[in-house]
Amino acid sequence: MALLGVVFASILLLVLLVAYFRLNTFIAFLIVCLFMGLALNVVREPAQRMSIADITQSIQTGIGKTLGSLVIIIVFGSMLGKLVAESGAAQKIANGLMQVFGRKYVQWSLMLTGFIVGIPLFYNIGFVLMVPLIFTVAARTKLPAVYLGIPMLASLSVTHGYLPPHPSPTALVGAFHANMGITLLYGLLVAIPAIVLAGPVFSRFLKKYTQEPAQLFTTVALPDDQLPGMATSIVAALLPVLLLAATSLLKLKAAPDSVAFNIASWLGDPVIVMLLAVLNGAYVLGIRRGWPIKKVMGTMEDAIRDVSVIILIIGGSGALTQMLLDSKVSDVIKEGLGSMHMNPLILAWTIAALIRVSVGSATVAGLTAAGIVAPLVVGTTVHPSLMVLATGAGSLMFSHVNDGGFWMFKEYFNLSVKDTFKTWSIMETIVSVVGLIGCLILNLFI
């Protein structure tokens, strides 16, 4: 209990430093990590304590691990987003959406776009790729960016949390020995109500959040005759989706270790996908339309400057996550909950949710919960695919200050910490709870 008390005190300190004292978020993360490491030493036995060198090494490791996997994707995604916005491609796509769905149903069009894009696309890529579209539609419709963004981001969150082929759900399929195709089918049934309730339904209460979004991808509207073609705009914006979808299908058809399989694996790597998408965007949206190379490079450099603060914040959240892992708090949670007797679906969801709230990482929460629950459900009648979905839903529970996604949403949409709790954190909670309810309902019929 003392360890958990230190964790809760550390999270409270972070909230106070950022929200009340207005301290730089990255510096606040470092202070909280140091506080947590030293405070844990006070409540632990001498043999379990971390030296100051271990604490700082944990911080460095957390920042490195988090940014090592995200920084290239975030930067390339920002470059592509800036090109899509500056060239007028996002404006062209927004025009098409408005014509097809109309202003009244534009939320639903964005939600559907997010869901389709989110199935093959990693969450962080989808976030930075689709945010410019949200901002553009918000500017043209005069509707709040948060009101329009929540439905699309709810879709991205659901696909990331419990739909294969995303990394965590795919690993959970193996942990629970489930069938991936059946898991995807059941996942779609659970995902639809979760996205609708957390998206268009919940966002009806968010029209009061009228803050102007961050100036990352905002542009002045261009005359229609200066916009790129619709096909060019869509292909440039969604090339990462098309590449990932095509390579995923090719890997399913090709024999393992064959030339086709290896090519698909290489081209399907997120870094390669985003590099190709940026190069394509620079050419078809800039150079081919008469932009000088200096203007194209200047646009991409602006994107890097715009996103640098967000990169630091995400790195700081990674440091906090690593400190939580190195402090063995997840082991304490395992010991406390592993012996509980309840419905396996509820148990998996609860453990994943508690780890998610404590650690911040949905992937860590899902895989850690699976390690606890998988041995406990052997011989039960619960369908393994539902165990995958319940665990994945729990891993999305109440995203807050130790989750990089929380800070990305806050900074991109220019919200206070308090308002981010009221919008983003509640949306993630709805997605998580509705996912569990969906699993329990399906369990009655399977």
UniProtKB/TrEMBL annotation:
- Pfam families, alphabetized: GntP_permease
Q: Does the keyword Cell membrane apply?
A: yes
State where the protein is found: Cell membrane
Q: Which UniProt keywords apply?
A: Cell membrane, Membrane, Transmembrane, Transmembrane helix, Transport
Q: Does the keyword Transmembrane apply?
A: yes
Write down the InterPro entries for this protein, in alphabetical order.
Glcn_transporter
Q: Which residues cross the membrane?
A: 27-43, 63-85, 105-138, 145-163, 183-206, 227-246, 266-286, 307-325, 345-378, 421-445
Topology with regard to the membrane? Multi-pass membrane protein
NCBIfam families recorded: gntP
User: What name appears for this protein in its UniProt entry?
Assistant: Gluconate:H+ symporter
Source organism (scientific name): Chitinophaga filiformis
